[in-house]
């Protein structure tokens, strides 16, 4: 399922898997990395510890909390000579603009879409993650789905990660990359 008119991928490939907590960024990122050979970076690992502690305490991040983290994410994209798959919530358009500012206007986005019920259930079943289920509603409230001008596609999370990865690979033209 694609919502953009024309999708394209930069060379080297830089692509952001975005969406609310628990939508499957890490799982799909691992599958897409295995399929394409492009490294995966989880933006969760780039948060300042203060942000992680805030979320662990059940307090939603503000814009001010997110800007330094988004700058780190932008630097990771810009510095990725061989390309990068970044799993990053990127909930607001201004956040995605910030990433595009560093990585280029042709930065590609994939919005992983699922219902609150499905994601809630998956988050409840997940172990050893700092993000409390109670923050999911604030994630949805903050979310601004990408527009048609954002080189973004939307994919349903109702199928397994490997299948989502295959859909992403065929929707974007993966220059110079071979399917495994
Ligand atoms: N397509 C899928 N089908 C079934 N289960 C999935 C799918 N994608 C992810 N899951 C499961 O849902 C849970 C959340 O997925 P994951 O941790 O990948 O999401 P995330 O977006 O990276 O979360 P966060 O942003 O909170 O770190 C995990 O337990 C994962 O195994
Ligand atoms: O922008 C945000 O609020 C954060 O990035 C969150 O989305 C979490 O880091 C992530 O989803 C972990 O569950």
TrEMBL record:
Keyword field contains Translocase: no
Gene Ontology, cellular component aspect: cytoplasm
GO molecular function: ATP binding; gluconokinase activity
Keyword Nucleotide-binding: yes
Enzyme Commission number(s) of this protein: 2.7.1.12
Domain of life: Bacteria
PANTHER family found in the cross-reference section: GLUCONOKINASE-RELATED
The name this protein goes by in its record: Gluconokinase
Gene name for this UniProt entry: idnK
């Amino acid at each position: 399922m694609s919502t953009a008119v024309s999708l394209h991928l930069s060379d080297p490939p830089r692509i952001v898997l975005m969406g609310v907590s628990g939508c499957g960024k890490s799982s799909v990122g691992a599958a897409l990395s295995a399929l394409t050979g492009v490294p995966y970076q989880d933006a969760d690992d780039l948060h300042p510890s203060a942000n992680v502690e805030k979320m662990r305490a059940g307090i939603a991040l503000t814009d001010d909390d997110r800007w330094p983290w988004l700058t780190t994410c932008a630097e990771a994209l810009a510095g990725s000579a061989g390309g990068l798959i970044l799993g990053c919530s990127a909930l607001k358009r201004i956040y995605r603009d910030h990433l595009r500012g560093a990585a280029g206007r042709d930065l590609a986005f994939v919005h992983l879409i699922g219902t609150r019920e499905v994601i809630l259930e998956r988050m409840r079943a997940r172990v050893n993650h700092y993000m409390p289920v109670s923050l999911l509603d604030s994630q949805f409230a903050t979310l601004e789905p990408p527009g048609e001008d954002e080189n973004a596609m939307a994919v349903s999370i109702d199928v397994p990660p490997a299948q989502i990865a295959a859909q992403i690979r065929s929707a974007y033209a993966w220059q110079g990359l071979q399917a495994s």
